[in-house]
Amino acid sequence: MTKRMRNVAISGIGQTRHRGHREDVNMVELVAEAVEEVLADSKMDLKDIDCIVHGNMELFEGIHQPDMWHVLGDGAYGKAGFRITTGGTTGATIACSADHLVASGMYDSVLAIGWEKQEEGMTTTGITNMADPLWEREVQTGAITGTHGVMMMNKFGEPANQAAAELRVLMANNARKNYKAHLRIEITRQDVLESRVLAWPLRLLHMCPESNGACAVLFVSEELAKKLPQKPVWMHDHVTVHRQETFDLVNMGDLDTHGEAARTLYARNGIVDPIKQIGVFEMYDPQSWWALDWIGKFLMLENGEQIEMVLNGDFAIDGKFPLNPSGGVVSSNPIGATAIIRVAEAALQIRGNAGDHQVPKDVKLALSSGFGGTFWTVFHLLGAEKPDK
To answer: SUPFAM superfamilies under this entry (predicted)?
Structure first.
């Protein structure tokens, strides 16, 4: 791992129940729900929080600098604060920033908050207007693209089609065990394969929803973690890879920011066989075709090995390598919170108190990822044991 000035622990987790409609609360009240839960989980008082890191995709709700308003719900009034937006990776970048702020010694406690209330605006309009319609046209599709599906179908044939559908069924099965998930639906492989085509071979049931929700994670110094009641989950490392400067030149079907992030993180942390060495992976999976391809990149698999693993049930909660026991992004997608939910859920698995979607083994190391914006990948490694600084 990279050298740290001091160790950082996750000592509190809070998230809302993610839903398609939350007319009962405004944005401030939605954020407050997650903040109240993280404070209860950590047994911390708001006055003891040094800094707030806050983020969402502001163009989706159309509210400029919502962090200014949200001081009423997140307790940031009079405190140091940062606001972050990096697309779908916003939540993961918030986690990186909170980790750095504590590791540097600047603060002892940092509350990282990601949220989105997508019913307040038009997400598709936001995505299609954020890029140049000529030079950056590919970005405007968001996740509604069949490129990876076509690529995998051409290379691996019908087994890839079946695996993408089966992967979505697996995520639905997991989500039904997670009472905070948005889509807790019962579906079959045939349901997926017969759902409406969006961009062939991508179908409606392959896709993530638009969700409303918030997630808050408390990052603290080692000294403070010792005083708090929850089992600390230690930040071991994180890697960010993006194509911000050249994203108009990227071939979506051959994107390897995931592979580059994985190779870097594994090399720094002595991971040579992630399937054997990692206990669980909360992966950012905005659609099942992307997920099927990305599993191979993150786990360093060759020749489509992940297709057979999906069909064999290896990624189930009780399988060889549990993937997204929470139900993943295809089950809950409050975009500004989505990637920090991956961090929170990975931490819950290490703590051993994820509830009905807890994996049936002792998790020592966990991975989480985020993806979005200008082909931006964030990859986290969390552990039960304190890392060497």
So the answer is: Thiolase-like
